[in-house]
Write a structure and sequence with these properties.
Layout lengths: L1 E5 L7 H4 L2 H8 L4 E5 L13 E2 L9 E2 L1 H13 L6 E11 L2 H7 L4 E6 L7 H7 L2 E4 L9 H12 L32 E2 L2 E2 L9 H19 L1 H5 L4
Helix pairs in contact: 3-5
């Protein structure tokens, strides 16, 4: 899998490439990442990538041409047409199901907006889908892009230490995860549930499934009702 990331701040992605699971997976050759700065594709001496919005209003808007030229360069590099995702508060909510769907693409391009966003004509002509990580606003698309990439990398076979780790994550089966415990058996008067100490794996599996159901009903009933809030 290959990620192409359009960003004004490529150094931010060192948080992904130099830490944890995503670093190990990159070093193992399980995925590739290439960052593209649209300032490279400007023609003026100031390397301008934004301008004032038509109609007035606060802030600046990322210009069409530098981003379009960047996308054209990405498409020409590698031979496989990328699936273009724009990280945007106006996009569809990111879910585990969406992450799994995106895994079907050999190559994904992530467009990280800044300022007030990007020229709508670029979205209409060149973006395949918009994705939001929640109903709130951050300073740019870099952090959302890294969250999406990390979620996808976890699903690449071999990325995690245990083959079942991703399968048992929250949302993998439509439910929240069950509680987890480790040693010692008792801390500050709180004990590990006895069923986890008995070694009966059938009973443990049933307990965990019941805990997942109960936790989801309590904390995220919207998941069970098929709603997204």
């Amino acid at each position: 899998m290959r990620f192409d990331v359009i960003t004004l701040f490529p150094d931010m992605f060192s948080a992904l490439t130099e830490s944890g699971v995503s670093r190990r997976a990159l070093q193992s050759g399980l995925y590739q990442i290439k960052t593209w700065n649209p300032r490279t594709f400007t023609t003026d001496r100031h390397k301008t990538v934004d301008d004032r919005p038509y109609g007035g209003g606060p802030g600046m808007v990322m210009m069409y041409q530098p981003l379009k030229d960047t996308l054209d360069a990405i498409a020409a590099d590698g031979g496989v047409k990328p699936h273009v995702v724009y990280l945007s508060p106006q996009g569809q909510p990111l879910t585990q199901a969406k992450v799994e769907q995106l895994m079907g693409h050999e190559r994904v391009t992530l467009l990280c907006g800044r300022y007030e966003g990007v020229d709508e004509r670029l979205i209409e002509s060149s973006v395949d889908e918009e994705i939001s990580i929640g109903d709130f606003v951050v300073s740019g698309g870099e952090l959302p892009a890294m969250m999406l990439m990390d979620a996808m990398v976890r699903l690449i076979p071999g990325a995690l230490g245990h083959n079942q780790s991703a399968e048992q994550d929250s949302f993998s089966d439509g439910l929240l995860d069950c509680p987890h415990y480790t040693r010692p058996e008792e801390v500050d008067g709180m004990k590990v549930p006895a069923v986890l100490l008995e070694g009966n794996h059938a009973k443990i599996d049933a307990w965990r499934q019941a805990q997942k159901q109960a936790r989801t009903e309590q904390r995220r009933p919207d998941i069970l009702s098929g709603k997204t809030e």
